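User: Just a sanity check before I run the rest of the batch. Below are the structure tokens for the first item. I only need the designed sequence back.
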């Protein structure tokens, strides 16, 4: 079940994602804060902007991208997104990254 919203199936999941995307997507790519993270990598648990979604779509073996607004989400995917988010993913994936590695920003996508 989608967390914390009244029952309504897919619409309830979408509403939860729309409410949570700005909060869970606040830290984006380490240096960038997206005002409208309308896309997500549902297997990584991160919210991303439109430009970054295009890059993530080009690496389907690593990242599975869906629109927060346009695509259907099942309960398991929404729960995974709710329990993760960009800060959790950053702590997981960048914890052992050497300081000299380049961290991409949204400007790299323009």
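Assistant: Here's the designed sequence for the first item:
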């Amino acid at each position: 079940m989608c967390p914390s919203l009244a029952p309504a199936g897919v619409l309830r999941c979408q509403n939860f994602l729309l409410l949570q995307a700005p909060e869970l997507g606040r830290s984006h790519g380490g240096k960038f804060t997206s005002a409208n993270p309308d896309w997500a990598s549902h297997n990584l648990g991160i919210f991303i902007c439109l430009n970054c979604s295009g890059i993530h779509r080009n690496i389907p073996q690593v990242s599975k991208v869906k629109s927060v607004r346009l695509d259907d989400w099942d309960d398991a995917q929404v729960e995974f997104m709710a329990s993760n988010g960009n800060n959790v993913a950053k702590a997981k994936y960048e914890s052992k990254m050497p300081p000299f590695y380049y961290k991409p920003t949204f400007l790299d996508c323009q």
